[in-house]
Write a structure and sequence with these properties.
By secondary structure, this protein is mostly beta strands. Helix content is 0%, strand content 50%. It is built from no helices and 11 strands. Strands 2, 4, 5, 6, 9, 10 and 11 form a 7-stranded mixed beta sheet that branches. The chain has a 4-stranded antiparallel beta sheet with strand order 1-3-8-7, with no helix packed on it.
């Protein structure tokens, strides 16, 4: 299983970004995929998940500001984040079924 996340960057409060995760080594279309994050001094928390078929679920802290999506033809999963806040600063991880993890991508929200 390989999960390669990208798209993390420095963004100003109120800004937006899109994270991408390229997956390989497993049956992507049959797997649920998730984004987690871990901020400084915080525990890892679920940001969003998407099941095969498209059902989604979001963490309370990002509800209404995040959209997770997937492209089964490309083995990709995306996380669109809007109205970013300093508390969104974290390393964001792509996960397969909350069992396999990729290297994270750093998101920093700061003016």
């Amino acid at each position: 299983v390989q999960l390669q996340a990208s798209g993390g960057c420095l963004v100003q409060p109120g800004g937006s970004l899109r994270l991408s995760c390229q997956a390989s080594g497993f049956q992507f279309s049959a797997s649920y995929m998730a984004w987690y994050r871990q901020g400084p001094g915080k525990q890892r928390e679920l940001v969003a998940l998407i099941r095969s078929g498209g059902y989604t679920n979001y963490g309370d802290s990002v509800l209404g500001r995040a959209t997770i999506s997937r492209d089964d033809a490309k083995n990709m999963v995306y996380l669109q984040m809007n109205n970013l806040k300093p508390d969104d600063t974290a390393v964001y991880y792509c996960s397969r079924a909350s069992l396999d993890w990729g290297e994270g991508t750093q998101v920093t929200v700061s003016s």
